[in-house]
Write a structure and sequence with these properties.
Structural class: alpha+beta
Radius of gyration: 16 Å
Number of helices: 3
Helix content: 10-25%
Strand content: 25-35%
Order of helices and strands: HEEEEEHEEEHE
Number of domains: 1
Distance between the termini: 19 Å
Shape: globular
Largest sheet: 5 strands, antiparallel
Number of strands: 9
Amino acid sequence: MPDNPFADADLDAIEQRLEDLATDLEAQFGNAVRVQRSESAIGKTWTLTPANDRALGAVWIAFHAGDLQLESGRGPGGRWELSRTSDHASFIEQAVHSIAAGRVTETTARGRSRVTITLPDGTPSRETGSVTPAGCLPLPLWPRWADTRQYEPYR
């Protein structure tokens, strides 16, 4: 198991849940996943990297200012900005387990992407992002003609 810089830290209940998520994933997937922990002036970060390069990783952050964030995807989409609540910590737990199970797709087109995570109860959670010049709008119906990739499970 990698060194845990948070082991002696005074974690609040939400951060403890997020740390427990990382520890559970390491135990469940062993060498199929690597969890890197870091802390900076902005907060605590957990980076999940699968050994299978056809699977998708994830990053979750507990900001010192109080918010949470989940990032997953290879394009500009896939960033959920969340409040520091038990419900949102639960969302991160469910979403990360779904990502590890391969229940995630990413639709990409020039300058934009949409990540869709299917949660354990079958509910899709989508987040779309774009990086286009100011004043430009995405082409209509872009998800219909864009490339969609289904990611694989960690094992």
